[in-house]
TrEMBL record:
Enzyme Commission no: 2.4.2.8
Pathway(s): Purine metabolism; IMP biosynthesis via salvage pathway; IMP from hypoxanthine: step 1/1; Purine metabolism; GMP biosynthesis via salvage pathway; GMP from guanine: step 1/1
Cofactor(s) this protein requires: Mg(2+)
Catalysed conversion reaction: GMP + diphosphate = guanine + 5-phospho-alpha-D-ribose 1-diphosphate; IMP + diphosphate = hypoxanthine + 5-phospho-alpha-D-ribose 1-diphosphate
GO molecular function, a single term: magnesium ion binding
UniProt-listed GO biological process terms: GMP salvage; guanine salvage; hypoxanthine metabolic process; IMP salvage; purine ribonucleoside salvage
CDD domains, per database record: PRTases_typeI
Pfam families: Pribosyltran
Function comment: Purine salvage pathway enzyme that catalyzes the transfer of the ribosyl-5-phosphate group from 5-phospho-alpha-D-ribose 1-diphosphate (PRPP) to the N9 position of the 6-oxopurines hypoxanthine and guanine to form the corresponding ribonucleotides IMP (inosine 5'-monophosphate) and GMP (guanosine 5'-monophosphate), with the release of PPi.
Protein name as annotated: Hypoxanthine phosphoribosyltransferase
UniProt source species: Jeotgalibaca ciconiae
Length: 179
């Protein structure tokens, strides 16, 4: 049974699993013989990060960053505040940033600037979902799971006011939930 607030399931648990396994196989090759620092952007990326990292058959380390956008009611402003920084130094490290969804691209663009400034050796982005038509800055992910339409989605880490992160699938909410 789906959650009663969900209007439509866009991607099932099985579909997400398949995409994640495929990305994991590609990234296993990419990082063979390296020891990348895999950086999850909290909180949305947690489910994807735990599944993706288990699909990567190579040495790696995990770390997290929590950021929020000032004045971000509807979309991110790009004026980003770091709520939790990395525990690890990125200097001379191969970084893999893991995102749940890229929307305007402003958040990641800001993070990349920081990591460049901190002298990372390489920076790649993997995102489960990509809302390409919403992009406001010049930013492309290196690895994309699924291109999604311009709809607000929840589940598998993605929330609406902190709810629905635990749904194992990704879907859209019924209109009345936003009232
Ligand atoms: P940017 O900076 O790319 O922001 O605009 C990406 C962040 O925006 C959030 N976001 C969503 N969250 N459903 C969500 O639950 C969505 O459809 C959605 N679109 C964007 C998300 O936090 C992402 O990391
Ligand atoms: Mg996020």
């Amino acid at each position: 049974m789906n959650h009663p607030d969900i209007k439509e399931v866009l991607y099932t648990e099985e579909e997400i699993k398949k995409v994640t396994q495929e990305l994991g196989a590609v990234l296993t090759k990419e990082y063979e013989g390296k020891n990348p620092l895999v950086i999850g952007v909290l909180k949305g990326a947690i489910m994807f990060m735990t599944d993706l990292s288990r699909a990567m058959d190579c040495d790696l380390e995990l770390d997290f960053m929590d950021v929020t956008s000032y004045g971000a009611a509807i979309e991110s402003s790009g004026d980003v505040k770091i709520l939790k920084d990395l525990d690890t130094s990125v200097e001379d490290r191969d970084l893999l940033i893991v995102e749940d969804i890229i929307d305007t691209g402003r958040t990641l663009s800001y993070l990349i600037d920081i990591f460049r400034y901190r002298k990372a050796k390489s920076i790649k982005i993997v995102t489960l979902l990509d809302k390409k038509e919403r992009r406001a800055v010049d930013l492309e992910a290196d690895y994309v799971g699924i291109n999604v339409p311009n709809e607000f989605v929840v589940g598998y880490g993605l929330d609406y006011i902190e709810k629905y992160r635990n749904l194992p699938y990704i879907g859209v909410l019924k209109e009345e939930i936003y009232q």
